[in-house]
Amino acid sequence: MSVSMPQKRYYRQRAHSNPMADHTFEYPVCPEDMDWSQLYPEFFSDHQSTQKAAQVEFADIGCGYGGLLVELSPLFPKQLILGLEIRVKVSDYVQDRVRSLRAAETGSYQNIACLRSNAMKYLPNFFSKGQGLVYTNTDVEEVHLWMVKHFSEHLLFTRVPDAELVDDVIISRLGTCTEEGKKVQRNGGKNYLAVFRRVEDQN
Amino acid sequence: MASLGACGEWLVSTYEKKLIAIHTKKNREPFVFDCSAAEQKPKDPEADNKSDGSEETGSDKILAFSVSSSAKLVALTDDTKRLVLFRCEPSWQVISTRWVVRRCTSLVFTEAEDEVWAADKSGDVYSFSVVEPQKTGELKLGHLSMLLSMTLTPNDKYVVTADRDEKIRVSHLRSPHNIQAFCLGHLEFVSSLLAPPGHPQWLLSGSGDGTMKLWEYESGRRLQSWDLKQLRDMPKSDTEKETRSAVSRIAGSPGGHHVAVQCERVPSVQLFGMEQGTEERLMPSSRLTLPHCPLDLTFDPQGRLWVLLDSRETPFLVYTHTQDSWQCDSESPEMKRVTEALQPHWEALQVSAGLESRFQHLYKGNFDNMASYREKKQQRLQQQKEQGGKKRGPGKGQQSNGASKKAKKGNQPGPVTKASS
């Protein structure tokens, strides 16, 4: 049975949602209680039980219509990628899109999924402490400068210099595969990129 | 709002706008501090030009107070956003009156007594210098939800903060941006915290979900959990919501052997003791039935449990632990002295505990955006099916009623925020 692709026009929602408002979100009490098998069934099926439990290694905070998830899926087939989106219609669109893609190509897109949640508040409910990289991308210079300022001032993050990012597969796609990215390209806008690495506390 | 605390040989209680400290052993004049007569905020000449009406006057009601480890210092914070620092020796005196940015819910002194930390309703934590008593507060860390309780762990290593979003965060005191762990497990707001004396790795937390949990805070690992309602042998009621009772106070005896727990609107106190055995565990020990719901409770340096009641004749009940049980000491000379000293002040104190809950409004309402959206989506899909399905492709041509409704909806603002809390 084929699952038809969702049409964006039925899922339009304005870009801003108040993250401080008390909407009902589903979130696990703690990361250990999270059942990822619901989102990534192929990775948690019985015959996989002997292998180490897969973990989400990429998180797209504010994934919008899922452009980046779809783009990264084939590049990191063995790693789980999660999109977090706060808007009702938009998160539903991504979930429908993933369902449709998985049905159309067996075995593909099993490693991407979308959750409707308020990342600002509930990230610690889904994920335990980890190391890693933060990729930030925006077409608004002020936002870029604001992000750079706060991450740079934060003692647990250090900026990854551009030279180290030359071969990064994610960078090249960040500005082009999302709805917003494509809009920026159409309007001839500029992409401001900054990547930060989590470091150990110096104390 | 009323609260109780022990400060060396003084018993400190707050009632609405007043703090009153009474000596338990000597007949000394009680110290009374009235927030409504306290220093007013100096008028900011620039602020007069702003007409945004943000200068609402506070009610002067005391929101929190804290006693330092040596019992030499006390700090209080009120609804008018004051932070008042007192010394208790050789006599009670105001050291300074400072101003917080937002109303605070919790205060705690560092063990070193060099700072007093304040947690506010917007989720921020500020530290105020004690050594430089006029210095303004420094922002230390922030939650994304109202902070309800805060405590420090032994040797001032960590600061533990608890919020309305069920979260308990453990951060390094000297580098608060560095989060050590989260203690996750409560299902409702976390209303009280205690780093129990004598157990340096332990943290106790109480919540609107009616449970108390014991944690190894450094790792965030939950060790034990108790449903206080079950301990009260309450039968399961259909009206769960009405009988929800948040934990309003967790107190620990100085020796580390006992813990007393108070739940709002419950006329009893649940006591816990250390279980004998190889592994350290906390066990429910006895339940004290009270004539009315207590206002607050505390242990004094001698390990006696003091319970504050809204009663002129018996404002204090004192319990001592002898053999294996807690006995109410109605002859306690300290209790009698303090009760007598309180009498002349009773009228002016305007004790108004009432049955007002401090915590009822903190329970989150459920505004389920998904349900109504899913219903409409179902309708749309149903209508599309009934019209023989649509051709795949960009949206030109005829649109069904359902589709045009959907397109219109797309132009409206997103999820509606709740009108009432």
TrEMBL record, chain B:
Residues 40-53 have a biased composition (Basic and acidic residues). The keyword Repeat applies. PROSITE patterns: WD_REPEATS_2. It comes from the Eukaryota. Residues 36-57, 375-421 are annotated as: Disordered. One of its GO terms (biological process) is tRNA (guanine-N7)-methylation. This is WD repeat domain 4.
